[in-house]
Amino acid sequence: MKALNSFGFPVLRFNFRGTGLSEGEHANGVDEVEDVRTALDWLEREYALPVICAGFSFGAAVGLRAAYDDPRVPALIALGLPALPVEGRNYSFEFLRECTKPKLFVSGSRDQYAPPGKLEALVETFAEPKKLVRIEAGDHFFEGRLREMRDAIEAWVKNIFG
Length: 162
What we know:
Oligomer: single chain
CATH architecture: 3-Layer(aba) Sandwich
Number of helices: 5
Mean pLDDT: 90
Radius of gyration: 15 Å
Low-confidence stretches: none
Shape: globular
Distance between the termini: 19 Å
């Protein structure tokens, strides 16, 4: 969020249903896709600009599903994308095999939900264009490696949007 905002992008950060003080109940990623689509609708009304959909972990998985075929979203960013089941959630990303939007995946080399080899094999199945960046010694939360994560996003955004 901070990285994209520092590049001049308006940013909307929100809690999914049932998280924090938000209303509703957590739905394991099913109804949360509607949360993302509602946020995209609001961004379109407020800014009338192309939107980069970026999310972290569960938010990345849900954001990708919500935005991969949305014409308002020309590019996708997934930080800490789970490549293994997490808390009973088994993620599926087959829809990205046909998604030709630019996609950036950033993960720590020590991410317990995306171990070396597993995330690489998953991203390999996705359509081009795509880029996977592994942050050396980074964990799932990029603790102590936020600068490297920001730099990876900045380089990719500049490459895609000039």
